[in-house]
Amino acid sequence: MIQIHEKTLKDLEFFTVLDQISTHTITAIGKAAVLALRPMEVEAQLMRELDYVNEYLSSFDNDNRIPNHGFDALDKELKLLHIDNTYLEVTSFQKLVSISLTVNSILKFLNKFKEYYPKLEKYSNHIEVTTAIIDQVDLVVDRFGDIKDDASQQLAQLRQEIGKLKGKINSSFSSALNRYHGLDYLDAIRESVVDNKRVLAVKAMYRRKVKGAIMGGSKTGSIVYIEPETTLQYTRELNNLEYEEKEEVIKILKELTDYIRLFLPLLNDYQSFLTRIDVIAAKAKYAKRIDAILPEISTNRQLHLKDAYHPLLYLANKEKGEKTFPQTITLTNENRIIVISGPNAGGKSITLKTVGLLQVMLQTGMLVPVHERSTMCLFERILSDIGDNQSIENHLSTYSYRLKQMNYFLKKCNSKTLFLIDEFGTGSDPELGGALAETFLEVFYDRKAFGIITTHYSNLKLLANELPYMQNANMLFNERSLEPMYKLVIGQAGSSFTFEVAQKNGIPYSLINKSKKKIERGKVRFDATIAKLQKQRSRLEKTEQSLKANEKKKLSEAEKLEQTNTKIQKKLESFQELYDSNQRLIYLGQKVNDLAEKFQNNKRKRELMSELFRLVQIENSKRKKVSAKQKRAEKAKEQQVKQEAEKKVEVIRKKKKAAKKKAIVVETPKPVLKIDDRVRMHDGKAVGTIDAIEKGKATVNYGLFTTNVSLDLLELVETKKR
Predict the structure, then answer these.
(1) Residues 6+ apart with CB under 8 A from 212
(2) N or C: which end of the chain has fewer CB within 10 A?
(3) What secondary structure letter does DSSP report for 703?
């Protein structure tokens, strides 16, 4: 029997998950059912629920999606059906028809695709597929929500008489209207409607001259509304008939309600089935949103969460566009308890809550965001002590409250328990509280319970190091920036980096050094050793990641080279075939040319034909016997190779043409250099003045020295102002 305390659910923020799932329901009754979800007590029922959600999730990824399951709650109708001599309104019957159609469509679908959804089909096959309710309501109510005329013989007769009577009323009213209009007793509007009755709009001065019942008047008093006397008798008869019609309709509705009462158990099944489907669908939609799966469920005590995400943190970071760091953690009979240590804000509590929340979600029939190779088992109890639980109402301190919690743990903890304790042993004197926490942990260990705790106490880290089925773990920290890396590492305790963090936050080194002296030297050494090991672990982690990245890059480059090599090899083979074919054709052309020259000299036709025939026979003997299909294929291949070669040649030609165009640059006329112009050499920066020009050379004065330079090597900087 699985039992998980309400406080544990609150500690793990399970109710926030329920709120998020409830937003995916499409009915009010389904939303209420989701919010009422709790971990399931019966294992077989839990396994079925997980299968249902997993099957529904699979429907999102194929073409056979489960039909819509929306419905209006039947609570009011079901209550009335339990009470004798009551009847349902037409709107209620329409709801019954709608829910019948919805259930029938889902049942038929699941039966048709039972290979895809075997568990859901098995769950639904106890519900009968029937159109009895639909057919019976259809006999009485039309598609507009009105009672049909032929719902009963009496109703048909009454409505026929009502129709005739309405005709007489309209006829008599029209007669009175025309008569009094001719006498000019009526106002310009002539008629109006009062209490759903047509009345004459009579001028007030003529109200005594018009026989009939006064039904009211205008606000100004200038018009009096009168129902003509000729229609009054017909109206009374109509009222009587309409009353009889109403009674007949109630009688028909009662008969229909009595018929529907026979299907009361089925209607209860309909509502329960669709509510359950709504809950299952909401869980599946939430699973898709958080990338959740159904992990392997082990009957042995084994919990292996690979790349596990905290769903609330995952969704919050997803909205912000930030990365969420997954955790990998394993609990087995050989590794029952993990003690996580390290600095605050490093992710210890989140790791603890991730394990607890995913376990509670699984045991409530929800899929969890983990890697597909993860394995989970079921626990009879999950105990938690997370956060500052100071009780103001009961005037309890944090430590007193935690001692009460430990007392509860001691009573309930056994080999089928998962316990989760955050900041174990805090709230009292470090020495005494640490000793008591160590004793509690030894009891939990002896009872073979599974658990995860977070702590800063060195004695608990040492205990985890000494006991064979308990392990230390730490959250990696960047030793340079002292920022968390949010990665759990099993097998080594973590330093709190107390003094390092203090130094980073500007605390003077002299005070830090003074603080170190106040503590026992062994503790400082122990924490320093852990910090050193943690730094080494962090560096190794980075090195490993770098090596993996390089290896991946090299493999990718090797694959690219291999692909390129294969392509080049294929092209070489194709070009070799083309070359051989062309060489053969050149050889044949040469032979034919030799024969033509020989024939020109000797004019021996018989010898020419003989030589040509022999040449053809030699060539045919070299050919392989191939089918017409193979010939076409070879010809197509040759054509393809030629086209590729022509394309490459065309590209090369275009490049050459483009290069030639670039080379042809319109040369601007060089300026004529004159004495006193300021110039410099093409490849130099120094500027000088021309003192003299003789035989294509210029004497350039640079101030400190002069030099003779060819005019072709000089460029004009500034001309002398003439």
Answers:
(1) 176, 200, 226, 227, 228, 229, 230, 231, 232
(2) C
(3) S
Name the residue with tokens 């699941």.
Answer: 110
- Tell whether the torsion through CA atoms of 356, 359, 363 and 366 is positive or negative: positive
Which has the closest alpha carbon to 493: 469, 515, 470, 512?
Answer: 470
pLDDT for res 393? 45
- Would you tell me how many other CB atoms lie within 10 Å of the CB of residue 443? 13
Of 246, 261, 253, 256, the residue nearest 80 (C-alpha): 261
- Assess whether pLDDT exceeds 90 at residue 18: yes
pTM, 2 dp: 0.66
How many residues are recorded in the chain?
722
343 neighbors 486 (Cβ within 8 angstroms): no
As a whole number of angstroms, the distance between CA 639 and CA 645 comes to 10
Report the SS3 class of residue 259. Answer: helix
Residues 6+ apart with CB under 8 A from 334: 468, 469
Q: Measuring CA to CA, which residue among 267, 380, 284 is closest to residue 41?
A: 380
CA distance 531 to 458: 13
The CA distance from 713 to 715, in Å, is 7
pLDDT tens-place string over residues 364-410? 999 999 999 999 999 999 998 886 554 444 445 566 777 788 888 88
Percentages (nearest 5) of helix, strand, coil residues in the chain: 55, 15, 30
| Single-letter amino acid code for the residue at 303 | L
Query: 3-class secondary structure for 129-158?
Result: CCCHHHHHHHHHECCCCCECHHHCHHHHHH
Distance CA 696, CA 708 (A): 10
Residue 597 CA to residue 586 CA, distance in Å, equals: 17
- Residue 394: the pLDDT is 45
Question: What is the C-alpha separation between 478 and 490, in angstroms, rounded?
Answer: 17
Q: What is the mean pLDDT of residues 156-171?
A: 88
